[in-house]
Amino acid sequence: MTLPHPNADQISLPIVLAVLGDPTRLAIVRYLASKEGVPLNCSQFLDLGSKTNLSYHLAKLREAGVTRAEVVGTSRLITLRRDDLDARFPGLLDSVIAAAEDTALPMVGGHEVEISA
Amino acid sequence: MTLPHPNADQISLPIVLAVLGDPTRLAIVRYLASKEGVPLNCSQFLDLGSKTNLSYHLAKLREAGVTRAEVVGTSRLITLRRDDLDARFPGLLDSVIAAAEDTALPMVGGHEVEISA
DNA sequence: TCCTTAGTTCAAAAGTTATTGAACAATTGG
DNA sequence: CCAATTGTTCAATAACTTTTGAACTAAGGA
What we know:
The first copy, chain A, is of the alpha+beta class. Helices cover 44% and strands 14% of the residues of chain A. Chain A has a single domain (12-102), classed as Arc Repressor Mutant, subunit A (Orthogonal Bundle).
């Protein structure tokens, strides 16, 4: 079983920007970037929202071509599609991640979400 | 009379990304970038939408801090806020503009909008 | 097999954004 | 002053997005 992903040449700039323009999704990308190389499963993002809500946001990221999700057992291992994004939109991902770094994280339950390396 | 603009430190990354994630607004920015240095008034964007609709999108760009609008007579002279964007989010604007360059322009009335330098 | 864990799907509700047309305001030129 | 030009505002509507909970599927371990 595999989940649907656009191929690299189908990745659309306005869609990528719109998808990154949501604070929850930007935080997900930021977290993925901080652990680049390590595939994460959905439950690692539970700080950022409920299970259903994350399922929704992670699907948006995947369908936009920002992330890749590999099905392994009952888990989805999620990674950034850095290779394809860099090829298609050089420098974009890095500048977004760098810019996101000195931006406040979303507040969940009254305290700032932690991103531990 | 002056129009409200955020100051540089109030410019928010998710808001900028969301604002750029609309095809009409991305086309406006692309057009501004192609004529950088030359202030444009609203009527130069009429290919991209109706007068009211452009007023709406140009206000979004201004309120997000992406553009600056100077009131001169009955015109608004619109420019990219490159200085502030570059300071706040280094490389972001350039990578977006470069990426937008090989992206289809929005269709208006059945034919692709022209960006003449 | 039964239970748990991981995540999806669905439908409803709430909220937000985009588009339109008609009416308005302000400036400029005749 | 009058008319034209430039652009805004308003209210309505349409369209989309986000969030939620309940129900579901699929895999893995006891």
